[in-house]
Design brief:
Shape: rod-shaped
Structural class: mainly beta
Largest sheet: 7 strands, antiparallel
Number of strands: 17
Radius of gyration: 29 Å
Distance between the termini: 54 Å
Number of helices: 0
Amino acid sequence: TYMLEFGNLYIRFFKDKGQITEANKTITGITNANPGVVTATSHGYTDGDFVIISGVAGMTEVNGVTYKVAGKTTNTFQLNDVDGNAVNTSTSGPYSTYTSGGVANKIYQITTSYTTAQLPDLKFAQSADVLYITHNSHEVSKLSRTGHTSWTLSEVDFAETGPYLSANTTATTLTPASSGVATGVNITAFAIVGINGG
């Protein structure tokens, strides 16, 4: 069983009382600076990603906290709070000095087109690992899970078969022979194209 967190233009996922995150990225240093800078070789993060730090020795104040990545380079990134403000990890912050260890985990999320204002009006129907989502301002969407960190959101492609065939695709006009309501009134078709297959 999963719990889904819908936010402004994203969905995040929870299972077994924990937030789903991506693989560990080993931390080898955090500066006492404003903003604090984390060293994690080849972390692969992008500015704006959200990460949770844990297992740090020394600067234990950062453990269990969610941060927003900023100023990223190949091997480093700056710590911002979730609102995008720089986090001052200097000893006057007051933060302790980093000594060793720690990992960063990117919070797994997918992008949506649902804004905060639209969230209360979302409707859902589930079938196994597929969740159908509807909203008056959006096409019907299908959220599919194929793995713990493998979710996709796509528009539903309704098949055009059976009762869903296109209707009234020609400009054939039907004209009654007389005005008024009566039985046995003749109807004349402008053309037979599109009527009962011609």
